[in-house]
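Cross-posted from the bioinformatics board.
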Amino acid sequence: MHPELDKMKKEDNIFTIPLAGLPFGHTDYQYVINDSFFEDRDYSEVKKGVVNLHLGVEKMETMFVLTLNFEGKVVLQCDRCGDDYEQGIKDSAEIYLKYGAEKDDEDEDVIIITKNDSEFDLSDLIYEYIILSLPIHRTHDDESLCNQEVLAKLHNFSQVEATPEEEENPWKQMMKDLKSKIDK
Ligand SMILES: [Zn+2]
């Protein structure tokens, strides 16, 4: 890894933007999100990953427009076999930090700030957007990449489960009834 990037990730609050200190206009930030970002969040279903994140900040009189673009890989648990697998992710988002205006509930991407906020920590937002970018169905790309031993066991199990106790057959039932009458 590039030594400067390595140094950057070890600094605290690298995702904190100095709202007051930023010059008006555009500022770019480049981050590499790694395992420690996810490990810091005990509740995170993602425990490992490498995600390149580009953050653009446009500072204006009344607001900041933040543009997030990220791309990378995270480790997830496969829904099919339970093993870990690498999931590619890629997404972008636009977030607005607006001074003092009324919160519009319909717009999730608008965050209200006050003139007293001299900085803003983006780390939770970045985490949320990464989680939002994950697919609903989380599996290895192809079933052949799954843990075959586990799949075989699951297959046997579901076959046993799926076998009906007694097939519904009117003739069988009739024979049973007849037999019981004869036996009496
Ligand atoms: Zn799998």
